[in-house]
Amino acid sequence: MTYPIVKLGDPVLETPAEDVAEFGNAELDQLIEDMFESMYAARGVGLAAPQIGIAKRIAVIDTSVGEDAGQKLVLINPEIVSTSGRQTGEEGCLSIPGFREAVSRPNKVTVRARNAKGETIEVTGEDLLARALMHETDHLNGKLYITHVSALKRDLIRRKVRKLQKAGEW
Ligand code: NI
Asked: What distance in angstroms lies between residue 36's CA and the mean position of ligand 1's atoms?
């Protein structure tokens, strides 16, 4: 099933998510399938469980946006183990639709996580994948990309979102 995407203003997005403790079960497999479905429906390259209102440390990424099944990544309880280099580029988030800001991120990132079976995996990504790995791991720590832009820009986005909320357009 496709879940609606939770938007900025919902506290679940700014609260650290809980570790997953049980692996290799039908519930987890179904949740992961639903996360991919929800992400593709929203045309995103990554989705973290808090974005569908589930406060668990699960993220899915597909930088091919459904074009190449080999690019599908499932990261459970991910931790950043190393980063190097720098890249600056426009970043957006399905939970903050209509906004994009330049964000500086490492250019190469290695993440250690579990897969759906509970096996430990390591994923190294560069460029867009490195950005997605950082962005999604941030989500699971209750951090949105707007925490990486200036306070001025962040406050402006929050003010605009509050206006949209009041107008019933968020
Ligand atoms: Ni996001």
From this structure: 14
Residue carrying structure tokens 């990132």: 109
The pLDDT tens digits for 69-105 are: 999 999 999 999 999 999 999 999 999 999 999 999 9
Q: Examine the residue annotation and report whether 169 is marked as an active-site residue of this protein.
A: no
pLDDT per residue as tens digits for the range 39-50:
999 999 999 999
Q: Is the pTM of this model over 0.90?
A: yes
Distance between Cα 118 and ligand 1 center (Å): 24
Ordered structural domains, the chain, with CATH: 11-85+107-143 (3.90.45.10)
Phi-psi category of residue 140: left, alpha or beta, with phi > 0 → left and psi -120 to 50 → alpha: alpha
Nearest to 54 by CA among 96, 116, 3: 3
List pLDDT tens digits, range 25-71: 999 999 999 999 999 999 999 999 999 999 999 999 999 999 999 99
Contact partners, residue 128, CB within 8 Å, separation at least 6:
45, 63
Beta bridge partners of 84: 108
Measured in Å, residue 45 CA sits from the centre of ligand 1 at 9
Catalytic entry in 18, 119, 136, 169: 136
In this structure, what token pair is assigned to residue 64? 């091919």
